[in-house]
Design a protein that fits this description.
34% of the residues lie in helices and 17% in strands. It has 184 residues and is of the alpha/beta class. The chain has 2 domains: 124 residues, 3-Layer(aba) Sandwich (Rossmann fold); 55 residues, no CATH class. Strands 5-4-1-6-7-8 form a 6-stranded parallel β-sheet, with helices on both faces. It is globular, with a radius of gyration of 16 Å.
């Protein structure tokens, strides 16, 4: 199969990393469970001021070296290797803008030396003919790909738990994703 895999919060732990920066900057103690939707506005616990998670995320993208410090999701590297060993064609399909191509390639090389990357800031639904299945965490991407006829597997995260309808199967982690691929 041709398997497309999202980057942020699927192969790299972007949200915990961004929250670490937010917590340092604002003196807060937010966790990924506090991010219940993509455009979450966090509220500072002592003075009530809003903290725009998405704005903070995109500001971090522009910090030199930031993306190189984002840890891989447990099981991602081994999972991609296993999929490739089984003969699947695996590539990263990211909503990141192409201006982040270089740091995204750093992540890709950490995962597998010949992993290809496709940047799709305009939406992954435009690429449904390129893959048999997409592993993603973004409710909007999952919905749009599903509506375009693509096959999605939802990587469970707090911000996608209220999706209805699901537009795909849900997996808790990389081992469960690998089992799901074996069952397809």
């Amino acid at each position: 199969m041709r398997i497309a895999v999202d980057v942020d919060n699927v192969v790299v732990e972007m949200t915990p990393h961004v929250l670490k920066e937010i917590n340092r900057k604002y003196g807060t103690k937010f966790t990924p469970e506090d991010i219940t939707e993509w455009h979450t506005k966090l509220q500072h616990p002592t003075d009530g001021r809003p903290i725009d998670y998405t704005k903070e995320l995109f500001e971090q993208y522009d910090v030199p070296g930031f993306m190189e410090g984002v840890p891989l999701t447990p099981g991602a590297k081994e999972g991609i290797q296993e999929l490739k060993d089984k003969g699947h064609k695996v590539f990263l399909l990211t909503g990141r803008d192409k201006k982040y191509a270089e740091p995204t390639m750093v992540t890709a090389k950490q995962l597998h030396p010949d992993l290809k990357v496709i940047h799709a800031p305009e939406g992954k639904q435009n690429y449904v003919n390129y893959f048999d299945v997409l592993l993603d965490d973004s409710p909007n991407e999952i919905k749009n790909v599903g509506l375009a006829g693509g096959n999605t597997i939802i990587f469970d995260r707090p911000w996608n738990r209220n999706m209805s309808p699901l537009y795909g199967r849900r997996v808790a982690d990389w081992p469960q994703f690998l089992n799901t691929i074996d069952d397809l």
